[in-house]
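Researcher: Good morning. I'm working through a list of sequences from a screen, and I'd like to move beyond sequence-only analysis. For each chain I'm collecting a predicted structure so we can compare shapes side by side. This is the next one on the list. No need for commentary yet; just the structure.
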Amino acid sequence: MTAPAYTLAAARGPGAYLPPVPVRRRWRDNLRIWWREIDKLLLLLIGLLMAIGIIAVAAASPASADMLSTAKERVPDFMFFQRHIVFQAMGLTLMIGLSFLDRDQARRLGILVGAVMLALLFVVPFIGEEKNGARRWINVGMSLQPSEFLKPGFAIICAWILSWRLRDPGLPVIAFVTGFFALIAGLLMLQPNLGDAILFGGIWLVMVLLAGLPWQRLAATLGVGVAGLTLAYLFYDNARHRIDGFLGGGTAFDQVDLAQRTITAGGWTGAGLWLGVRKMNLPEAHTDYIFSVIGEEFGLVTCAIIVVLYCALVMRALIRLTGEDNLFALLAAAGLITQFGGQAFINILVNLKLFPSKGMTLPLISYGGSSTLAVCFTLGLLLAITRRNPFLAREGGSLRDLIERKEERP
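Model: Good morning. Structure tokens for this chain:
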């Protein structure tokens, strides 16, 4: 006779509850899970832009080094290129490390970083380093610009607040994030930093529209924005100078004219690596105006390819959100990709003389210390939030469907 199989459940009796046994995964298991869930196409596009950035900074580094050299001291031609390699390696490590976080961890980290950078933003006007008439940086061994890291923190915090609507539809969450944006915009204007204030406004607008801002209020919101820009032009010297320089040119604000002439100097195919001439007279060739250096040395065709890569990256992130059933993830990822795409296209439009100068770098391509790390921090959070188990079915639907489903559940 065969004895019945002995089990712990049988020993405890029918209906006995067995607590779940914690599973300790090895690092190889975590790596396999990460590779299964990560958006590989998004990762590939990021890698391509970073590779282009290495070549572009190599092309622009001699021009910037020559601009900074004096009769007594010569800056090495490839100093910026060598530093860029280091910052790119640090940024890539940071981005990959953050992409291993789950959504809750990414949310907590984003809120923490946003809170710390907001606190630093209060003290920047008093202890910050002054460059070109603006105080935006704090020296912490390297120049740290708190507003750069506050951008992803702002998107995460706003998404977290707006997602409260699922718990209590009566909460004035849009008013909360609007007040938060107004506070940040006011602090940025003290630096002065009009460009970042406008970018924060774009992130805010996209997120509140996704969160359910009535279309009837959109016209009023746009009206307030136009009124704000008008007041900035009338009473804010930084805004007036930049707008006047864009519309009429001027000796103190003619970088955009130089950039536009540089980008078209190479024609369709470019003059060739290190063969550009106009870049030698271009200020900030390795940062704000690196897109013009690419145009002169590699041609307008290469510039068009870069624009396509940015569009593909933004569209891929948005497509990844199709069918997303987590309101926080949807809003946070939308805010993060709006920040990234907005900064990229503002920089490109400035180089094409289609937008006033804003002092923004080209993400993943321009040289930068804290700006490179901030962009990689943003994309690391984006990769973490858009991770998805391909074997889990999702309810999908529109944002309204998501909210209605949540409200119908007991």
